[in-house]
Amino acid sequence: GVLSAAFLDKENLPPLSVFNFGSGDTTPLKPLIEGVVAEIGLDVQLNFGTRDYARFEPRFMVADATQARSLLGWQPRVSLAYAVWQLACESFPTLHVRQPRAQLTS
């Protein structure tokens, strides 16, 4: 994962390297958030579109992990929902969320 990439031999990396860590999948934000919320069973009301975009708010984002894969040998090992679940459990121990599938789907 990301932590193992941090401990790699940095001697062979180009200076000032920037790495994106993500699946590389292009998924619109709304279905991505709805899917994570559903998988972890979070009881919240999502209100998409209730405000206008901020002036510099990105309309599209994707984490292209090509450089992380080629230079670090990194690839995602768990789903986004699982990573969010882990973060929620650590950050908010009294929050009741369901453990989602860990493996990535193709």
Describe the structure.
The chain has helices at residues 2-6, 29-40, 66-72, 80-91. The chain starts with a helix and ends in a 15-residue tail after the last helix. The protein is built from four helices and no strands. With 106 residues, it is mostly helical. 34% of the residues lie in helices and 0% in strands.
What is the fold's blueprint, element by element?
Blueprint: H1 2-6, H2 29-40, H3 66-72, H4 80-91
Helix pairs in contact: 2-4
Distance between the termini: 18 Å
Mean pLDDT: 82
Amount of helix:
25-40%
Our count of helices gives 4
Q: How would a crystallographer describe the biggest sheet?
A: none
Annotation, overall tally of beta strands? 0
| Cα radius of gyration in angstroms | 16 Å
The structural class is: mainly alpha
Low-confidence stretches: none
Task: Name the shape in a single word.
Answer: globular
Range of strand content: under 5%
* Helix/strand order, N-terminal first: HHHH
Keywords summarizing the entry:
mainly alpha; 106 residues; 4 helices; single chain
Please summarize what this structure is.
By secondary structure, the protein is mainly alpha-helical.
